[in-house]
Design brief:
Number of strands: 10
Number of domains: 2
Strand content: 15-25%
CATH superfamily of the largest domain: Phosphorylase Kinase, domain 1
Structural class: alpha+beta
Order of helices and strands: HEEEHEEEHHHHHHEEEEH
Radius of gyration: 20 Å
Length: 276
């Protein structure tokens, strides 16, 4: 099967971007350009507007991999984090989890935060500066909406995404191929909850980013501070033991390089020592 990056949207035309921006009552962009970074589930465009509160914006255009809930999850989590914590993140300007818009794709528009991607400049910073990494779970908002939790946090086999379903499983769809939990019926699920209630009550649920590597952190050399945490697409409320499921926390690109894996472990061990 293909990788997510194989199914990214084709490059957008300036006309379609202008039509989108004007459809949400923002002024016509002065310029738009593709970002240098490449993401697996969305294409990224940098927009400059002539006037208004948000002159510099980031447009993330989703592929068809995981319809609706990925876009809705990112918007919901970012809004909650912004309202309930002091973590620096971009503002959500607009989003659409449908394809009924001038782009014919799901999208989210964010304010553009200052700073450089920490992963790009990490090797030029002194070792002491690495202490500016955020904590593993530095916030605890009282509540949040997390649509993606229903999809990714249930026990499951490998998730099937729309492009591969259409190619390899004709006649099936997103819902029929993705198993939504290990229980055959709702009644069976309720019985399991009752039988394991005592143990389940001991597991704390926490909000977490789940992909907090250095390429998702913006850093200002002049201030020596983190200016934004990016890419909340797969964040959610999870059992605390699952706060770092992909072991991405504090990873430094190139992510699979042996030397960088050693550096990631060093940073993680240092954080544990500081927490004690």
């Amino acid at each position: 099967m293909g990788t997510p990056i194989d199914h990214l949207p084709l490059p957008l035309t300036n006309e379609s971007i202008i039509a989108l921006i004007e459809s949400i009552s923002l002024p016509k962009p002065l310029s738009s350009s593709s970002a240098k970074v490449t993401a697996e589930y969305h294409s990224i465009y940098m927009l400059s507007l002539p006037t208004g509160d948000h002159k510099n914006l980031v447009l993330k255009v989703s592929g068809p991999h995981i319809p609706k809930i990925k876009t809705e999850n990112e918007a919901a989590i970012m809004s909650c984090v912004s309202q309930n914590t002091t973590i620096p993140i971009p503002n959500v300007i607009a989003y659409d989890s449908s394809t009924s818009n001038p782009l014919n794709h799901e999208y989210i528009i964010l304010s553009r935060s200052p700073g450089e991607t920490l992963g790009d400049i990490y090797h030029t910073l002194c070792k002491e500066k690495s202490r500016q990494h955020p904590r593993a779970n530095p916030y605890n908002p009282p509540s949040t909406s997390c649509p993606l939790l229903d999809f990714y946090q249930r026990p499951n086999v490998q998730r099937k995404q729309i492009p591969d379903i259409e190619k390899y499983f004709p006649g099936e769809n997103f819902s029929t191929l993705n198993i939504w939990g290990p229980f055959p019926t709702l009644e069976a699920f309720i019985i399991a909850l009752e039988e394991n209630a005592e143990e389940l009550d001991k597991v704390k649920l926490k909000p977490t980013h789940k992909d907090l590597h250095s390429a998702n952190i913006l850093y200002s050399r002049s201030s020596g501070k983190i200016t934004a945490i990016l890419d909340w697409v797969f964040s959610g409320i999870v059992p605390f033991t699952r706060w770092n499921p992909t072991n991405a926390f504090l990873a430094v690109p190139p992510f699979h390089d042996a030397e960088m894996l050693v550096e990631k472990r060093r940073l993680q061990e240092r954080l544990v020592q500081e927490e004690v």
